[in-house]
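Exercise: predict the structure of this protein bound to thymidine-5'-diphosphate.
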Amino acid sequence: MKKGLFITFEGADGCGKTTQLNLLKDYLENNGYEVVLTREPGGKGLGEKVREILLNYDGEVSNRCESFLFLADRAQNIDIIVNPAIEQGKIVLCDRHTDSSVAYQGYGRGLDINQINTLNNLATNNKKPDLTLVFDVDIETSMQRVGNEKDRMESAGKDFFNRVRNGYLELAKQEPERIKVVDSTKSIQEVQKDVLEIIKTKLN
Ligand code: TYD
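Solution:
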């Protein structure tokens, strides 16, 4: 049986990671791999309900409450979707994961990063991605891609997104083995080529 792989896709809103995730899924399936797609927030079932609150609730949400909702969804995603698939030798592609909490709630909202790391470890039961791709794009491009229809998180403003972006770049410096930065200002095809080059080093 093939060895399971857990790959996470990260980056600021509008970075193009979801497009690349779907392209990679097609590539892997065409090459005989079994792939499971999931996302945070909102893999499936209960996760979808948590996602609905996180993105559309229009009352006041405290920063800490927001963090815990993302973490609750993460625990569910790991237990119900990610771990079972990895055990069956599948490749799991996950749209956002622990680094989103560090980048958005830590660097973006200013919550204590050590605490977020501790809580992330609790939520994932210490499961770590085998590989994380950070799709890096300047704020002007990402805002343009997001457009005018913004959800609750996307309405946080330019300074916030600059902090998020820099947070991701900082994380990549701290964990260069796991986290690879992909220049996402390039065309979809060029970015895909870069992604495949990285992925091929992890396939068996
Ligand atoms: P989504 O519509 O999935 O955005 P994208 O397509 O950019 O991934 O919305 C997820 C939003 O939630 C996004 O703005 C990032 C944010 N988020 C956090 O702030 N913390 C987290 O831990 C996670 C998983 C997401």
